[in-house]
Amino acid sequence: MTDPTTPRICETPHTTDAEENACEEHRLTAHGTTSLMRTVDVGPFGIYFTNVNRAMGLRAHSHTGSVTVVYNTVGRHGYPSFADTNAALEARIHELTRAVFKDATNEDVADRLFAHLDGYVDPVWERWGGSYSLRAIHLDVIGVHDALGHDNSTTRYTVARTHGGQA
Description:
The chain is 26% helix and 28% strand. The longest helix is centred in the middle third of the chain and has 15 residues, at 83-97. The two termini are 38 Å apart. The protein is an alpha+beta fold. The chain has helices at residues 17-29, 83-97, 106-117, 123-126; strands at residues 39-52, 60-73, 132-142, 154-160. The protein contains four helices and four strands, in the order αββαααββ. The chain is elongated, with a radius of gyration of 20 Å.
């Protein structure tokens, strides 16, 4: 038994792109689906970064970690996850983590990564199309026992738009 408020996925074969697009648009906007969230998560991309955490009185120190980028899928297809598109995204992340983050907590590093990736579109991505916007980044910092007092766990720092908040 199906829930009558659940929209049916269009099962009719389509003979034109216009029919396919109309069906998909109906499916995406039908009653009850407005609360769905569709995302594409890309990564994790391994990184190495250095920060000076003045807020906690920590000198310059370095971390290994990873970054996962989450895009909202706004249309029929979202971020185009392919070898060339992901390589461009990884290169951008490495570019952003190359310099020392001065006066930055790990939360600040995550904030800055989000700010620099928000609205960023690499020219390589354009050939694939898609309708997407940045939803979140996850910065996973891998700790090691050190003189500063870190431990050997991984800590995730997330910066995300709230549900429904799209750029």
